[in-house]
Amino acid sequence: MSQEPLARDAQVAAFRTAVLEKLTYAVGKDPEHAFDHDWFEAIALAARDHMVDHWMDHTRQIYRKSQKRVYYLSLEFLIGRLLYDSLSNLGLLDIAREAMTGLDVDLERIRLLEPDAALGNGGLGRLAACFMESMSTLGIAAHGYGIRYEHGLFRQAVVDGWQQEQTENWLDFGNPWEFERAEVIYPISFGGSVETRHDESGQPRQVWWPAETVRAVAYDTPVVGWRGASVNTLRLWRARALEELHLERFNAGDHLGAVAEVARAESISRVLYPADSTEAGQELRLRQEYFFVSASLQDLLRRHLNMNPTLLNLHEKAAIQLNDTHPSIAVAELMRLLVDQHELPWDTAWQLTVDTLAYTNHTLLPEALETWSVGLMERMLPRHMQIIYLINAFHIDALRAKGIHDFDVLRAVSLIEEDNGRRVRMGNLAFLGSHSVNGVSGLHTKLMRSTVFAELHKLYPERINNKTNGITFRRWLYQANPPLTRMLVEALGPEVLDDPEKHLRRLEPFADKPAFRKAFAQQRLHSKKALANLIQERLGITVDPEAMFDVQVKRIHEYKRQLLNLLHTVALYQAIRAEPGTHWAPRVKIFAGKAAASYHQAKLIIKLANDIARVVNNDPTVRGLLKVVFLPNYNVSLAESIIPAADLSEQISTAGYEASGTSNMKFGLHGALTIGTLDGANVEMCEQVGAEHMFIFGLTSQQVEARKRSGDFGASSAIGASYRLNDVLQAIRGGVFSPDDPARYVGLIDSLVPYDRFLVCADFDAYWEAQRRVEELWHDPQQWWRSAVLNTARMGWFSSDRTIREYAGEIWNALE
Prior knowledge:
Blueprint: H1 3-25, H2 36-65, E1 69-73, H3 83-90, H4 93-101, H5 107-111, H6 123-137, E2 142-147, E3 155-159, E4 162-166, E5 179-190, E6 193-198, E7 204-209, E8 212-224, E9 231-241, H7 247-251, H8 260-266, H9 279-307, H10 314-317, E10 318-323, H11 330-341, H12 346-356, E11 357-360, E12 371-373, H13 374-380, H14 382-401, H15 407-413, E13 416-417, E14 423-425, H16 426-432, E15 436-439, H17 442-450, H18 454-459, E16 464-466, H19 473-479, H20 482-492, H21 495-498, H22 500-503, H23 514-539, E17 548-553, H24 562-578, E18 587-592, H25 600-617, E19 626-631, H26 636-642, E20 648-651, H27 663-669, E21 673-676, H28 682-689, E22 695-696, H29 701-710, H30 715-721, H31 723-733, H32 746-750, H33 764-778, H34 781-793, H35 800-812
Parallel strand pairs: 1-2, 1-10, 2-9, 10-11, 11-15, 15-16, 17-18, 17-20, 18-19, 20-21, 21-22
Antiparallel strand pairs: 3-4, 5-8, 6-7, 8-9, 12-14, 13-14
Organism: Pseudomonas qingdaonensis
Function: Allosteric enzyme that catalyzes the rate-limiting step in glycogen catabolism, the phosphorolytic cleavage of glycogen to produce glucose-1-phosphate, and plays a central role in maintaining cellular and organismal glucose homeostasis.
Protein name: Alpha-1,4 glucan phosphorylase
């Protein structure tokens, strides 16, 4: 017998033994009486032991080399299930599967018990998770910093077609991947007043006397890279009160008052994105952002000083990346820590702050570039408001000293907005306090320079740069689609798993091989059958796996234009009934995504999707040519089922509004063809894949901007010129899809005429024609599957490894 099988047998036996030991001594269960969740915890703990071995080795190496560290601050980390992710990256997945088979335990069944960590909402949090994994894969010393939400974002249920928000109890059974660091605690303060005192040398010092202080407690999750290359740390903060119980109040009979401070403190890490439609909600969101930023900065400064005698080289040893505007209070907080606590001169502290911080912008929507009322900031963070005023004053003075006196320019670059009540512009603060400000696609970065940061860009022309987003292939190909992964390895060799950016292009000649195209279509059909079964189980709707799966899954927002897709759905429904002689392609329209709890219009769009589905799916005249599905509670695990099964990827945002998108990359990697606008990373996808293998339509960003400037969004003329669009709008408005409440969608439809801000009507006819081209190509399967293979072959550039190399080399200076 060869040595290799013996080694593998030994590995399988060792893993099986480790699981049994964890089951007995950590879970406290006998194998004969263990439930599935007991097995999950035992397997996870056995896998975690392997991660810890790599983790310790990597950490020692970082300290030994005095390696520069990257600190990634993000309000979201949408990490998804970790069992298969960790086992796969450690090279233990097949070993674990074989080990558990020997115990009559189905690892696939056990995997499904793991809840998705409720630490994010959509693309922002998923990007952060991809970046953490890529930094581990590339050996970059990194810490992710965020909040350990007790409930995270809500669990979405759909009741009578309406979204209902339910508590997401992802921690009910604990979290076997994390380590509580009870010794890592930092005080986080709010409110109070600031007093000027003089030190021994007579210099004035600002002393903050807070009214409230909470504790930030650290929880660490190891993040393992591909083939166990290295393991970094995701450190999440939980909020705790200084005292768990006010004993005097309790003994006096005030049992609720005795724990009131506990409830107030712990609300900080309770849920992700509390509704900010009230003043209390806005205050809680600001408390969340400052809480995790302050804890993270205190932590990294402590780590730096443990290794270095001074903070003056902070920028040489640490790079801090702000993921969107949420952590931008870091500019003021780092200044506070450097000036007030470490007593550095203002100018020195400011230079260190700018040299250390970098800011990623993810949106051009003015309402998403956070602003906080000056009143709220002064009440919650009085010292920070002083610092922001000082930063602003020094900045404006410096501009005037350079001869810049134009009032409009100074107003545009000010940190304080005066137009609609005095507010702090957090985007401007992040821009001024960072040495690098990057967009996340070529178009987005170009528009940043000409729109939201136009005047700041003129003053600092070298500061804005582009880093187009990417995705980790380990999660979104190898784990999500094993059949396609096996095809790629058989065709290109195992090296494609290690460097898809380099090797995936070698798949291009296979697009012209009929046998390979057939096999490619068969692996897609395998995924579609699995998704069809899931749809049947969850919704009771039967769909045909042989039909085209037309998919739009993303956060529900008007600029992402799920409404445009629904208008097309109705138009297609009407056409199928009216034109039975046309050779229609059978199609399943699949939607998924959550609407913000206070976003009425988005929730109404979800209801419309479900109303349309109810009518279309129950109409026998459609003859099965069209089905509509809305899958509730979209998360990473559901995405892993949907994306490999998609034939058509809907990326139809209004041009100039989507910063990048990453679902477009995931769909393209699996060979789905994209129908979309020239928006976000769709532009780069066109360059990589070729426009002839996509379905591009609609107004360009320049044309959209011209419509916005003119104030004429063209809805009336578009409706007047398109009988099809008019018929669709009248049907929805007239209650065809809402007979129980005929007026339900009157406001939604009527709002399009005066203010079709996202140009749904203007792009409708172009979208319809693009969808007709989709149908034509679907009827030519040889060409469809040729384009599908080429989509997969040309997606290697969209690896998050490539993106992180660019960050590390061009922003962080963290490549060895």
